[in-house]
Amino acid sequence: MAMASFARRKAYLLSRNLSNSSPDVFRYSHSLTAFSRGFASSGSDENDVVVIGGGPGGYVAAIKAAQLGLKTTCIEKRGALGGTCLNVGCIPSKALLHSSHMYHEAKHAFANHGVKFSSVEIDLPAMMGQKDKAVSNLTRGIEGLFKKNKVTYVKGYGKLISPSEVSVDTPNGDNTIVKGKNIIIATGSDVKSLPGITIDEKRIVSSTGALALSEIPKKLVVIGAGYIGLEMGSVWLRLGSEVSVVEFAPDIVPSMDGEIRKQFQRSLEKQGMKFMLKTKVVGVDTSGDGVRLTLEPAAGGDKTTLEADVVLVSAGRSPFTAGLGLEKLGVETDKIGRILVNERFGTNVPGVFAIGDVIPGPMLAHKAEEDGVACVEFIAGKIGHVDYDKVPGVVYTSPEVASVGKTEEQVKTLGVEYRVGKFPFMANSRAKAIDSAEGLVKIIAEKETDKILGVHIMAPNAGELIHEAAIALQYDAASEDIARVCHAHPTMSEALKEAAMATYDKPIHI
Ligand SMILES: Cc1cc2nc3c(=O)[nH]c(=O)nc-3n(C[C@H](O)[C@H](O)[C@H](O)COP(=O)(O)OP(=O)(O)OC[C@H]3O[C@@H](n4cnc5c(N)ncnc54)[C@H](O)[C@@H]3O)c2cc1C
Ligand SMILES: NC(=O)c1ccc[n+]([C@@H]2O[C@H](COP(=O)([O-])OP(=O)(O)OC[C@H]3O[C@@H](n4cnc5c(N)ncnc54)[C@H](O)[C@@H]3O)[C@@H](O)[C@H]2O)c1
Fold first, then answer.
1. Which residues make up the binding site for NAD(+) (predicted)?
2. Phi–psi pair at 290, nearest 5 degrees
3. pTM for this structure?
4. Strand partners for 162
5. Does 342 share its domain with 483?
6. CATH number for the domain harbouring residue 477
7. Which of 198, 430, 452, 468 has a CA-to-CA distance to 301 between 20 and 30 Å?
8. What's the total number of domains in the chain?
C-alpha cells in the first residue's frame, strides 16, 4: 500500500478499522480503547493517568494527557523535572559541546577569517556555570508547563503496589498513595556498569561525572566509542585533554552507515582523538595517583597497559526499574530488563503502560517523547503514531553526523536493489563561503521506485539538515521529490538537493 501522507493513511486505517503494527510502518490500534481502563474523569481523587518519571517520555506524556482532558499526576524522584536528558544528558552535554567548540574555533579557526586575539583562555567554572544555568532554566520551564496544563507534580520515589496504585516515598520521609486508572512507567535508563570497574564520579566517571569535572584531565580514556564517548571525548579533547577511546567492536558507532563512519573516524583522528578498536578493558587499578587500565585484544591475546587521569565509562545504558515493584505485579521484562509492551505501549498487566528508555527501541529523548504522546493518545481512545524506523539519530560532534532510515549495510542485508547518490560539502557554495566544507550527504533509494530508504549526513549542522530527509522518509518520498523542491541559495541544504539529483540522475555542481 503506497500512502504518501499520515492523514490519508490514518483515514484509510480508520475506515478499515485495521491494525498495522509491522516495525516498518506506523503503529496503529485496531481496538482503540480495549487496553486502557477508560478516561472519563471520575471527579474523585483518582487520576486518569499517573506517570512515574519526569523525563522527556514522562513529562511529555503527562502534559499531553492533561491537554487531552485527563486528570494527570507525574511522580519524579530526582527533585527536578526533565529526566536524564535535561539534567545530566542531552542539554548539559550540548552546552559543553557548544562552549568547547567556541574555544576551539577561537583558538584554531578565527584567524583564518581575519579575527585575531592576543590570547584565548578557558574559564572552566564559567563554562560549567553557563551549562548549569541552561539546565536550571529549562527544568523550571517544565514545572511552569505542568502548572499551565494542570498536571499535578509529586516529588518522590514511586513504587507500583497494584495496577492502579503507586506508593510514593517523598523527600521529607512521608509516604503517600497516588491512585490512577492508567499508570505509565517512564523511569528511563542508567549507565551500564562494566564488571570490575567501579564508578566513583571522580577518577572513574559516567557521563554525569564527565559533565562536571573540576579540572581538565591531562589524559582521558573513554571506554566505548558510542554517542556519549565521542561527544564527551570531543568536549575534553577541545579543551586540551589527550583522549584515547577504547572500543570493543571493530568500528566506532557500530550502528552508523559504514562509509560515513570511516570519514567520521578520520575526522576525529585529525582532531587528535586516538582509537583503540577491537580492544577490551580487563582491569583497572586506582591505587596510585592516576588510573592504570589493563587492555586486551577483544579476541584475546597479549595484555597492554594505559595510563589515565580520568576514565569515562560510556559502554551503553540499561533500563532503570530498580525498586519499582515490577516483579510483584508480574510486569514482563526481557533478558536485559526492558519492559515489554504491545503496539499501544501496554504491558502484560492491563492499565499499566511503559515508554521511553525503559522499553525496547532507540534510547533517544525524541523517541521517548513520541512514545509518550502516542501512549496517552491510545489511553484517551485516539490513534497514536510512532515509527522507530524513522527516528533520526545525531552525534553532536564537529562535524555532526546525522542519519535517518537504513544504512547501506542494512539495505544490502535486506537484498533490496538500490541506488546511492552523494554530494560533498566541498562543492557546496555556502560551506565554502564559511570555510566549513568537511563532510557529505549520502542518499540511498530503492532502484525500482526511487523511494528513499536512508539518508546520512556529515556536516557542521547535520542535526538540523536531517529533518528534510526525515519528512521525506515519513511521506515515502522519492529522491526526485527532494531534487525538484526549490532550495534557497546559498544554503547547506542545497547539498541534500544535489545528493538527491545524484541518486536518480546527475548533480549540477560536481
Ligand atoms: C550524556 C547523555 C547525553 C545524551 N544526549 C542525547 C541527545 O543529545 N539526544 C537524545 O535524543 N538523547 C540523548 N541522550 C539520551 C536521553 O537522555 C534519553 O534517551 C532520554 O532521557 C530518555 O527519556 P526517558 O523519559 O525515557 O527517561 P529519563 O530521561 O531517564 O527520565 C526518567 C526519569 O524517571 C525518574 N525515575 C526513575 N525511577 C523513578 C521512580 N521509581 N519514581 C520516580 N521517578 C523515577 C528518574 O529520576 C528520571 O528523571 C543522552 C543521554 C546521556 C546520558
Ligand atoms: N546525541 C545523542 O543522541 C546521544 C548522546 C548521548 C547518548 N545518547 C544515548 O545514550 C545511550 C548510551 O550512550 P553510550 O554512548 O553509552 O552507548 P552506545 O550504545 O552509543 O555506545 C556504547 C559503545 O560502547 C561499546 N562497548 C560496549 N561494551 C564495551 C566494553 N566492555 N569495552 C569497550 N567498548 C564497549 C559498544 O560497542 C558501543 O560502541 C545511547 O544508546 C544513545 O542512544 C544519545
1. 224-231, 247, 316
2. -100, -150
3. 0.94
4. 165
5. no
6. 3.30.390.30
7. 198
8. 3
**d(Cα 308, Cα 290) in Å, to the nearest integer?**
6
From the list 251, 231, 243, the residue with the least C-alpha distance to 269 is 243
Closest CA to 29 of 370, 347, 378, 371: 378
Contact (CB, 8 A) for 36 and 379? yes
Task: Check if 385 is active-site.
Answer: no
Q: Identify the H or E element spanning 469.
A: helix 462-474
Residues 488, 358: one domain?
A: no
Q: How far is the CA of 357 from the centre of ligand 1 (A)?
A: 7
Which 8-state DSSP code applies to residue 388?
A: G
**What CATH number does residue 73 fall under?**
3.50.50.60
Take residue 341 and report the three cell numbers written for it.
509492551
Beta strand 175-185 pairing with 352-354: parallel
Identify which of 52, 59, 60, 90 to mutate to test ligand 1's pocket (most ligand atoms within 8 A of the CB): 90
Which residue has a Cα nearest atom 13 of ligand 1?
Answer: 90
Decide if 353 contacts 183 (C-beta within 8 A): yes
Q: Is 303 exposed, middle or buried (0-12, 13-18, 19+ CB in 10 A)?
A: exposed
**Residue at a domain's end among 315, 348, 363:** 315
- Closest-CA residue, ligand 2 atom 30, reads 248
Report the alpha-carbon angle 221-292-217, nearest 5. 45
The pLDDT profile of the chain, 510 residues, written as one tens digit per residue, is 333 454 544 554 454 444 333 333 233 332 333 344 444 444 467 999 999 999 999 999 999 999 999 999 999 999 999 999 999 999 999 999 999 999 999 999 999 999 999 999 999 999 999 999 999 999 999 999 999 999 999 999 999 999 999 999 999 999 999 999 999 999 999 999 899 999 999 999 999 999 999 999 999 999 999 999 999 999 999 999 999 999 999 999 999 999 999 999 999 999 999 999 999 999 999 999 999 999 999 999 999 999 999 999 999 999 999 999 999 999 999 999 999 999 999 999 999 999 999 999 999 999 999 999 999 999 999 999 999 999 999 999 999 999 999 999 999 999 999 999 999 999 999 999 999 999 999 999 999 999 999 999 999 999 999 999 999 999 999 999 999 999 999 999 999 999 999 999 999 999
Q: Do residues 184 and 214 both lie within one domain? A: no
Please, which residues have CB within 8 angstroms of residue 497's CB and are 6 or more apart in sequence? 482, 483, 485, 487
